[in-house]
Design goal:
By secondary structure, the chain is of the alpha/beta class. Helix content is about 35%, strand content about 15%. Strands 1, 2, 3, 4, 5, 6, 7, 8, 9 and 10 form a 10-stranded parallel sheet that branches. Helix 1 packs across helix 2 and helix 5 runs parallel beside helix 6 (about 210-225). The chain is globular and about 45 Å long.
Length: about 290
């Protein structure tokens, strides 16, 4: 990987809100009055429209995200959300074959992940979120072990694995090391790094991490996973402000371009201008 080439990825929020899980950090949980507008199954044509915009900006990664715990284990390949993601993937590959398609749909079985791969999905994103020893403090409706098992299923199905988490939820430095060790055991090709930003409606009320602490986390991830794509995502604008160059110097080589799931990111053209100002090129190939 060329450290001066930055991989661009965009998020398509296919379903929004109405999640029955109680994740203390998540705006999508129906247990939190966050004011987001819920919807289900964004039409494929709208997904294609968003993908065209992303591709025109130079994005190679396009992530199809749904809210909720994941695919139903009882429905198997009949799961409606699974079929909708597969349908969108077929349409995207037909029109924009250069895109690296990522599905982010929660819990999934080996069989369901094989189905997604057969229909055009290249990678699966399922974050561990935090350390195994800390997870029960932030979620009681499913386990860390379930998340880890889905990541193993993705690898077994032959999909690329995109797996990271959120820092600044109240975990200890040792628990951060524990999480990084778990990521090392999975060896994902991409590690999304999110820095938690509190919201009044969420149970986790931690102050945002300082810039120096955040840089230390990035450096630790780069040392542990030298070949991984480190993708900076939520919180970067607030934690780093006008000093985002430091993220790339510490080892970041991918960013989420544009908006996140339920919060606004920087304008696409502003991020592109930032990369140009830093003398960083946009990656034109997936490695």
């Amino acid at each position: 990987m060329n450290p001066n080439e930055i991989f661009l990825c965009t998020i398509c929020n296919v379903t929004n809100g109405n999640c029955a899980e109680d994740c203390a950090y998540c705006m999508q949980s129906a247990r939190h009055d966050t004011g987001i507008t819920p919807y289900r199954k964004k039409p494929v044509e709208q997904i294609l429209h968003e993908a065209r915009i992303a591709a025109s900006a130079g994005a190679l990664g396009f992530c199809l995200v749904t809210s909720g715990r994941g695919f139903s284990p009882d429905s198997g390949l009949r799961d409606g959300t699974l079929r909708h993601i597969a349908s969108a993937a077929r349409a995207l590959k037909a029109e924009l074959p250069q895109l690296h398609l990522i599905a982010c749909n929660g819990r999934a079985s080996f069989e369901q992940l094989c189905y997604l791969k057969e229909h055009g999905i290249d990678s699966y994103n399922h974050n561990l979120e935090s350390a195994q020893s800390f997870f029960a403090h932030i979620c009681s409706t499913h386990t860390w072990e379930e998340r880890f098992a889905t990541c193993q299923n993705a690898l077994k199905a032959g999909l690329g694995l995109c797996c990271g988490g959120i820092f600044g939820l109240g975990e200890s430095p040792l628990q951060r090391e524990e999480m990084i060790d778990s990521l090392k055991s999975l060896m994902p090709h991409t590690v999304p790094i999110n820095f938690y930003i509190p919201h009044p409606a969420l149970r986790v009320q931690q102050e945002p991490l300082g810039r120096i602490e955040a840089l230390g986390i990035i450096s630790a991830l780069r040392a542990a996973l030298p070949k991984a794509r480190l993708m900076i995502a939520g919180g970067r604008e607030i934690v780093f402000g006008e000093q985002q160059r430091e993220m790339f110097d510490a080892g970041v080589n991918a960013i989420v371009l544009g908006d996140y799931l339920t919060t606004k990111g920087s304008k696409m053209h502003d991020d592109l201008a930032m990369l140009q100002d830093y003398g960083l090129a946009i990656a034109t190939q997936c490695h």
